Amino acid sequence: MAKTDLNDVVVFTEVVTAGSFSAAARKLDVPVSAVSRRVARLEERLGEKLLRRTTRKVGLTDVGRVFYERVQNIATQVDEAERALAETRRTPRGRIRLTAPPDDGGVVWRLLRGFVRDHPDVEIEVIHTLEYLDLVQEGIDLALRGGPAPDSTVFTAHALFTSRILLCATPAYLAEHGTPTRVEALTQHACVGMDTWAPNAIRRLDGTPVRLELNNRVRANRLDTIQAAVLDGVGIGPLLAMNVADALASGDVVEVLRGCLPMESPFWVVYPVAREGTAAAKALVAHLIEVAPSVAPAS
């Protein structure tokens, strides 16, 4: 059995409230014939006459009165639901799902903490992963990602800041093994590497490329592992400025051969082009863009 069309019920209640088909049509801004057709369809669906029609006005039958008493608030409830939905779109509330790199050096929390403080009705779920998750399929609102500009046909992206890649070591390591002043001297040091990219990326301080065979005592594809090894004094390694800013400020590590890694890593907030974000997600994007310059470490 087909379900009753809610629009037919709403039109019926408007006819009863307005007192006539023509008055209801004016209020709904539709032809009188459309109003009459919907009421007739509702009566046919229910198998009962709901209205007594006269030339000037309509009245309820006994069955119609019973039905009306139970449905008269439907239009009001729909209006209230629409207003509530519109308010939800305007007011940040609910949950935001966000992905971010796991080895962020505390940068992600520094980006988020002001928003969390100022929006008590918003819950944020941070999923730390190196994987580029499918945001639509996984139901994720936003992603914080480093690297080249995302595909503009798939994502809307806002650059938050750019972090420099630099070579670092602990003062204790340098005190024991010496501080290199030429990139060629790196071949005499213990190094910590990200896969095999570091030897190809290194430049002489005048900018000319050089190919080195480095002694990578530890090689990993995660910066947090590399950073931990450098902080433990294993050797000299490439770190991201945004991850190591606190350690540099405290003197736990120092930069060596500044300029020999002329590489930068942009940091983005991205979301799917096709998705209209919630008020909460939109507010978070605006917040990230605003606070990023103060969070970004100096290069």
List keywords for this structure.
single chain, seven-stranded mixed β-sheet, D-Maltodextrin-Binding Protein, domain 2, 11 strands, Arc Repressor Mutant, subunit A, 299 residues, two-stranded antiparallel sheet, alpha/beta
Structure description:
The radius of gyration is 32 Å and the shape is rod-shaped. Strands 3, 4, 5, 6, 9, 10 and 11 form a seven-stranded mixed sheet that branches. A two-stranded antiparallel sheet has the order 1-2. Strands 7-8 form a two-stranded parallel sheet. By secondary structure, the protein is of the alpha/beta class. It folds into two domains: 6-88, Orthogonal Bundle (Arc Repressor Mutant, subunit A), CATH 1.10.10.10; 93-299, D-Maltodextrin-Binding Protein, domain 2 (3-Layer(aba) Sandwich), CATH 3.40.190. Helix 2 (21-28) packs across helix 3 (32-46) and helix 6 (107-118) crosses helix 11 (279-295). The longest helix has 17 residues, at 74-90. The chain has helices at residues 6-18, 21-28, 32-46, 62-71, 74-90, 107-118, 171-177, 197-201, 223-231, 241-250, 279-295; strands at 51-53, 58-60, 94-100, 122-128, 142-146, 155-169, 190-194, 215-220, 237-240, 254-256, 264-272. The protein is built from eleven helices and eleven strands.
The whole-number mean of residue pLDDT values reads 84
What is the rounded distance between the termini?
69 Å
| CATH C-level name of the largest domain | Alpha Beta
- Main structural class: alpha/beta
Strand content: 15-25%
* Number of helices, where a helix is a run of at least 4 consecutive DSSP H or I residues: 11
Helix percent band: 40-55%
Number of strands: 11
Question: What form results from the Cα inertia axes?
Answer: rod-shaped
Order of helices and strands: HHHEEHHEHEEEHEHEHEHEEH
CATH architectural name of the largest domain: 3-Layer(aba) Sandwich
Poorly predicted regions: none
Radius of gyration: 32 Å
Instruction: Write down the domain tally.
Output: 2
**Biggest β-sheet description:** 7 strands, mixed
What is the CATH third-level topology name of the largest domain?
Answer: D-Maltodextrin-Binding Protein, domain 2
